[in-house]
Amino acid sequence: MSETNKLKRGNLFSSPAFLAISSAVLCALIGILVGYIILLIISPSHAGQAIITILKNFFYYRKTNMKLYYFGQTLVKTVPLVLCSISVLFAYKSGLFNIGVGGQYCIGIGVSLWCALSWHLPWWQCMIMATLASAAWAAISGVFKAIFNVNEVIACIMMNWIGLYLVNALMQSEITMDQSKSETFHIASVSKASILPSLGLGSLFHKNQYVTIAIPLMIVVAVLVYIVLTKTTFGYELRATGLNKNAAKYAGMRDKANIIITMAIAGAFAGLAASLYYLTDIQPWKTSSSVPGMGFNGIAVAFLGGLNPIGVIFAGYFIQHITTGGSLIDMRYFNPQIADLISSIIIYTCAFVLFFKEIISRLGKKEGGANANAGGAEAQAAAVAAVKAKAQEGGN
After folding, report:
1. pTM for the whole thing?
2. Is the sign of the CA dihedral 330, 334, 336, 337 positive or negative?
3. Residue 293 and residue 103: Cα distance in Å, rounded?
4. What tens digit of pLDDT does each residue of 251-306 get?
5. Which residues of 369-396 are buried (b: 16+ CB within 10 A; e: fewer)?
6. What is the per-residue pLDDT for 380?
7. Which of 4-13, 88-97, 330-339, 348-357 has the lowest mean pLDDT?
8. Which of 2, 61, 163, 257 sees the fewest Cβ atoms within 10 Å?
9. Partners of 286 in the β-ladder
10. How many whole angstroms separate alpha carbon 124 and alpha carbon 174?
11. How far apart are CA 354 and CA 359, in angstroms?
């Protein structure tokens, strides 16, 4: 292999886009492999069919209409997962670990359902109220971090459980909940105006009434977040604060205000996720003793998507595709919870995304060899020369 080809290959391995995609694919493959091994241990003769069923998801159905309908179901359930992961990555880019997405998601559920079932507000008002409520809820953790220097992880965990119990208490009303089932009423039976509009999207998925404008809104939000973080001064300030709070403060940036604003915006995404899911009326809220896993799954999806708002769209769909497909395996040979187990394994492997990035990056350095190091040295020398020239200009 020529030196030029080696250098090009080394550059490819060190490309951020290549590192993100390759490490995510590697995590997914490892997760699927480990899941398959577990299936083999449980029932060797049926493991192959089970893993194929999981990967096929809606292709499991023979009729085209059924495939379209359940493809739509998968997309609907992908929306909150993607938005929760955006909540995680937005805070992470700013140097904060928002482990409180679950509690913020709960608040969004409670407020959106209360506005729909009790006040009968239009869908867009329910959505705005849920988004603002979750933003305010997350801002509390931001205040603890910025003003009192309380670790945001501890503050968020505390707020998770408080949020869950508040929503349980709020929903325990005869106006909102069917007491005999311990679940909220369906919105369609109380306030149809509170349901998200379909705008004809449902007809594309064999009249799936749960496919709404939530799907395109999710994509729009992801694109806007990408633009804000990478193309705006505000996004630069947030990322600078995350990289070095003291340096950002020295540069004149409002470090404390940025922390609070960041947490509030991250919480807003979690509240938006809850409203865009529950206002489809796809499922009611049931009194729960545990924080919804959506927030924790969002952490894995954020890293699997390379901490990129566009990448998490594909990562979120993949995780939901596997999860939904797992519910279709033959329960005569496998416990119903095996689907959740396999999904959990794949999600767990997502924690190694950064580790795999480092390995692939090192491979790239070896491929680049001396030329890559020379290129780096040249770039460093050029940078030093540029700084000296700038200093001389200032002196003159």
Report:
1. 0.86
2. negative
3. 10
4. 777 878 888 999 999 999 999 999 999 999 999 999 988 999 888 889 889 988 88
5. eebbeeeeeeeeeeeeeeeeeeeeeeee
6. 44
7. 4-13
8. 2
9. 183
10. 24
11. 9
